[in-house]
Each structure stands twice: as C-alpha cells, then as structure tokens.
C-alpha cells in the first residue's frame, strides 16, 4: 500500500489533498536541498508551497515527518526497473539511473541532506531505510532472473547484488568532489556483475 492509500482523501487523482501534498513535498525537497534538515522550517515550506501554514503543521507536524513523507513519495515516483535480458545490461541500467539522480544538482543535494538527517534522527533514518528497501525490491528481480538463467550461482543474495551496484556511486557522491559520470556508473555495474558471477554474494 502506498502512503497515499493510507490517508483518506489523497487517492483521488487531481484532488485538492493530492495537489497540496505534491506542492508541499516539492517545496520541502527544495528547502532540504538548499539548507539541509537543520534549515527545514514548516512555515517556510508552507510559504514556498503557497498553502496555509496550519495545513502543513496539522498534516506533517514536524520536519522529520515531512522528510519521511518526501522519501515515501520519492520511492513511489521512482522509475521502474529495466529488463534488458542480461544481468550486466540490467545492472548497467540501474547504475545509470542512480547516477542520473545523484548527478542532478537538486537531487544530489537532496540525497546528501536526507542522508545527513538520517545520521541524527531515527525517524529520518527509518524513512531512508524504507526508501532504499523499496528501490532494492524493485530491482532485485534482475539478479533473481540471472540466477534462473544460470548467469549467477544458486544461493546468490540477489538483494546484495543490487546494493553493490549503487554503493560506489553514493560513496563517490559523499566522499569526493569527482564527477559522477556514465563511465563511473558502468564500472560500478561491471564490478557488481563480476563479483556476483564469481560467487561473492553467495
């Protein structure tokens, strides 16, 4: 069930509640990308979204709640996995999607802010874990199908294969000032595929 499915009034396409949520989450993402969690102010978000301050306080209550809903929305909006027919093709598609997201000036800054928030706030951390769990779940069939095709050994931890693709990209984003280019994404996919074929994830 999506987060919208749990809130009465948010499932009606084009409904006012859905429009308000969309505007507020967009404004929250902008504010996070600019100032981080410490600078995330609900009144400022309401002003940016052009909605009533009371609406934002009543629905979200705290910046951590807003971050949690933003991450839930990002998971819902993320593009579906690719199916190229080969392990390397699928992992490369995954790596390139992650790279495009993290290399985007707004999205990269947003992920840095959310990851920083998760280090000091349990609710933000739980929301971040749910976000990545949803993305790994979306892409895990790529590795599972590779096992079924005989590309990977039986007993492979297919979720760990997917994590191994994006981990180097996040590491580069957070620890260096080097660009996240497509060659870096392809190298991450190739390394994960090679390790998986060698049985590292069994």
Automatic annotation (TrEMBL):
Top-rank taxon, per record: Bacteria
Keyword flag Signal: no
Residue stretches spanning the membrane: none
Family matches, as Gene3D superfamilies: Homeodomain-like, Tetracycline Repressor, domain 2
Keywords for this protein: DNA-binding, Transcription, Transcription regulation
Listed Pfam families: TetR_C_11, TetR_N
Residue ranges the UniProt entry marks as DNA-binding: 41-60
Domain HTH tetR-type span(s) in chain numbering: 18-78
Protein name: TetR/AcrR family transcriptional regulator
Species of the source: Streptomyces lancefieldiae
